[in-house]
Design a protein that fits this description.
Blueprint lengths: L4 E4 L8 E6 L1 H12 L4 E7 L4 E6 L2 E9 L4 H4 L4 H21 L5 H9 L3 H19 L21 H12 L3 H5 L8 H15 L3 H5 L4
Helix pairs in contact: 3-4, 5-6
Length: about 210
């Protein structure tokens, strides 16, 4: 797991280091370390960006969680959305470095680093509460670690919200969102989902889990 945890340390020995939890495997190990009280979450600096101050053995550091591995956009053949998420992640890390250097508050630093992407990131983060309420029954905006990728759903878009409501009403939303990468573009996949749902009916959930 350590191979996916990337860090940056300022030249100032007293400044906090920046840690990037890169990918699901590393996030699972990190979560376990917190549960075992090896690592302490001192404060959440930004729920929007999943940035917290942590400590271990008296050493404090700032952490970006639930971000994809930096090679993910390459594995996705540089798909536009994957490239955008990669850019967002790198900009967020630059904002964290600004914060650690004491130049501004975390929100101001990250928003400045994101530039034109800041408004989109904020809108998508706000819409996470809509998705978690449908999935878990609580509008926390925080996903289970195994569903961390769902934080990138474009649920701020009215057409996506309409589809989420529709499939939730049909009691198959969980199967759709956790099946491969359908969540990245629900609008384009919806006609095929409609066809298979019409064909399979009550067997749809089982089909989506690969058991038909």
């Amino acid at each position: 797991a350590d191979a996916n945890a990337m860090g940056y340390q300022s030249a100032d020995a007293n400044a906090m280091g920046c840690v990037y939890i890169a990918g699901g495997t590393c996030q699972a190990a990190f979560d376990k370390a917190i549960k075992m009280e090896i690592i302490t979450r001192e404060v959440c600096l930004s729920a929007t960006h999943d940035i917290s101050i942590m400590s271990i053995g008296g050493k404090r550091f700032i952490v970006l969680e639930h971000a994809p591995h930096p090679s993910w956009h390459l594995m996705m053949a540089r798909e536009p959305k994957a490239m955008r998420i990669f850019k967002e992640t790198m900009c967020t890390l630059n904002g964290m470095r600004c914060y650690c250097a004491g130049r501004n508050g975390i929100s101001a630093c990250v928003d400045e680093a994101l530039g034109d992407l800041a408004q989109l990131v904020a809108a998508r983060a706000t819409a996470r509460t809509f998705v978690t309420e449908l999935l878990y029954g609580v509008p926390t905006g925080r996903f289970l670690s195994k569903h961390a990728q769902l934080r990138h759903i474009d649920a701020h878009l009215p057409e996506v919200q309409a589809l989420l409501r529709k499939w939730h009403g049909a009691s198959v939303l969980h199967s759709i969102l956790t099946c491969g990468r359908l969540y990245t573009d629900l609008v384009s996949h919806d006609p095929a989902l409609e066809r298979w749902y019409g064909e399979l009916g009550v067997k749809f959930n089982t089909f989506m889990c690969g058991s038909v």
